[in-house]
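Internal tracking record. Fields below are filled automatically when a chain is submitted to the structure queue. Please do not edit lines marked as system-generated. If the sequence contains nonstandard residues, flag them in the REMARKS field before resubmitting.
Queue: standard
Priority: normal
Entity type: single polypeptide chain
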Amino acid sequence: MIDVSQDAGLWTVTLNRPNKANALTEEMLRSLVQAIRDAHSARALILTGKGRIFSAGADLDAVRAGLATSPLWEELSAAIASLPGLTIAALNGTLAGGAMGMALACDIRIAVSEAKFFYPVMKLGFLPQPSDPKRMAALIGPSRTKLILMGGQKITADEAQVFGLVDRIVLKDDLMFHAKELATDALAASLGIAHGIKELCD
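SYSTEM-GENERATED OUTPUT FOLLOWS
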């Protein structure tokens, strides 16, 4: 349910459970963490999903088994954030709940116009993963972060771009083309240069 491909320094990690809105099970989270750790030598990594939805967050059966508060979410976002190469979230559709941490940890986020973004943890009785509000607030500010996390708002791709949560909106058929185009310079450079630029930006 997690597909990984490599091509000359470019890694693509794809959530492949479209019949369940790419909702994440514990097994999928563990596979994602391992895939990201394995990609430490990647000069660029694209994270995307199959189907119309990037990810609905945690699988409901897995939530009932305790996945919503699993440390695996933080392990995953930390692993993405620690990659020295360029990381691109190519959001093929709606992004919800804890799955947002993956996108927040990436360097760049592009999305299709149909995508919506929401993180309904408060009404479900959970705190968000610790790093998610900090990363979100760094991108869109504290008030808009509270609009999503506390106000329970589902925002559109256009709003997400205005806020700064998404860097570019693209046509669905062009999503992977744009993601690979964004990776071009990173693939042509050394990993050390890419990592150096990331450190200067952060």
